[in-house]
Amino acid sequence: MSTLFGAARERRRRLAEPLAMRMRPRSLDEFAGQRHILAPGKLLRRMLEADAITSLVLHGPPGTGKTTLAQLIAAHTKRHFEQANAASVGVKRVREIADVARSRLEDGGPRTVLFLDEIHRFTRSQQDVLLGDVEAGVLTLVGATTENPLFACNAALVSRSTLFRLEPLGEDEIVAVLRHAIADEPRGFGALPLDVRDDALVVWATKCDGDARRALTALEVAVLSSLPEDREPQGVIVIDRAVAEESIQQKAMVYGDDEHYDAASAMIKAMRGGDPDAALYWIARMLEGGEDPRFIARRMAILASEDIGNADPEAITVAASAWSLVERIGMPEARITLGQAACYLALAPKSNASYMAIRAALEDVREGRTVPVPLYLRDPNSSPVSAGEGAGVRTKQAGGERYEYSHGHEDALTGQDYLGVEKAYYEPTDAGAEAAMRERLEEVRRRRRERRASANPGGEPAGPAGPVGGAPPG
What we know:
Structural class: alpha/beta
Helix content: 40-55%
Strand content: 5-15%
């Protein structure tokens, strides 16, 4: 009698479970997606086949199967499974789990898998309590988080764990999960006369954003809302696109720290690669996720100098104007300004020559010997007057050389050395407006070499330059 009573209670409890819970995979073969870690020959599959599971951290978006995978790992390795949420579990409970796991092992029982959801909320005291038993093999810790564990989890915990990223399921994988739930009689809707159209499956597979739980929930809503009050269908239940659209809410954008950096990186790379369509999509993704539009404008301003530079000198003006307008306008209108600027920057000719030039100069300053400012280039008002110079003389002498005022020469060019060492940091490309700058720079460098040579034909130090008329003070 007690057995029958217990079975009835179990059946009623199972009936109350949502479809997503009932359809949890019962084996690794039923598990959908994540072939990059579970396909034959992949690391996690090899670890499971060799029974070499160590502590793991599973990270990825919601609905990718982190909890289910932890349960399957425990079942596959025949280990006892304990589950807790790192946000609520206390040190006392952690000690209890560890003590029972140790006793179970000493009594000849199986090892214990402790699954900690939201492991990024694990406190230092909890970690200190667990680390000894984890290192001793008493506990196999499997953590789950939607955050990047390298940033969100404690370094000591990460160093003792193998990290696996779970990716959103593909649309085909979501459709397969849905078809399985529709056909499964004991756990799904196989006992109901359902006619779920292909276009309905496509709606769920698209809008769930790779979250199998959301897709199954939408299917359940569509089916249950189509049944009569007595739950006894009078005929075939048709689930078409319209029903599917109503059954799934507008998708909530997942936009945490990882997405913040990843989307910004994708936006920059799209504009750098000349793809305005992709750039607009990533901007829309960021804006829908609640990103500060000023951050997007700031990244555009950096790109205008770093990746476009003098190939289109107007780009930095466009970026600066967009940033200023975004500050003044705010959302939602600022999206228009960001879109306009993104299209311009994506299609502008590209050059990183000025960026590479300042990088090279900074490297020389940091790593090389410091180059002193030649005397004739120093500020006459701040530098001490050398012996033999009058108080009113605004030129500095070094080996007899004086500063030559450029505007007193043809084309405002002299042969004077402005650095003291031979360096060529800026090498313009042939892109856009920089092509003309390249020609100009080559001509300037050639003329300056010629004038330096004519001023010093024998290779001896150049004599003092004559007075230059019209030189401004300083």
